[in-house]
Amino acid sequence: MQRRQPGGQGPVRRSRDGGRGTRGTGGTRARDGERSASRPAAARRAAAAGAAKRTTAPNPNGLTGRATVLLVILAALALGYAYPVRVYLTQLAEIEALRQSQLAQQERIAGLERQAEKWKDDEYIKAQVRRRFYWVYPGQTPLVPIWDPEKQTDKELGAEPAAPPPPDSWYGKLWTRLEPEPESKN
């Protein structure tokens, strides 16, 4: 039985020794272990006289197959570690925000404790009652400021007082019409 080789070199005769017979083209008998299956077929055959030697084409992008596989593996690892690193950094930011919040709460608690200590003093309580409820001792004349005591007045700033905003209600408009006009400073 004769078969053709895949390359079309002609029929191959198989012998009874497991197919390691002679070639149909009159080649030599192959010895055990001498023939390497890892070598390409072009390297196993002798080149014809005057034939050009085969060379590999240069890779235009400069990446070999190994480098491409390595880059793919590194990209997969980077993508695999990106999410856990992001979660870690987010958790670090949350921990820092909680520390800042805790410090602010501790400062607030300390301020409230200082305030509570002040309320244990009778003189402080009297001063707060006089300031908040406008209480006076018997015989004193109460003076109630009509402006915010924490803000400076226009006179203190050296500017002329600003005109009050026009009233929005009907009774406010009526009252402004009934009031006499202020005298000018001429």
TrEMBL record:
Segments crossing the lipid bilayer: 63-83
Question: Where is the region Disordered?
Answer: 1-62, 150-186
Report which residue ranges the record marks as coiled coil: 95-122
What InterPro entries does the database record attribute to this sequence?
FtsL/DivIC
- Biased amino acid composition, Low complexity: 38-58
In this chain, composition skew of type Basic and acidic residues spans 176-186
* Sorted UniProt keywords: Coiled coil, Membrane, Transmembrane, Transmembrane helix
Answer whether the UniProt record assigns the keyword Transmembrane to this protein.
Answer: yes
Q: Which Pfam families match?
A: DivIC (PF04977)
Protein name (Swiss-Prot/TrEMBL): Septum formation initiator family protein
From which source organism is this entry? Catellatospora bangladeshensis
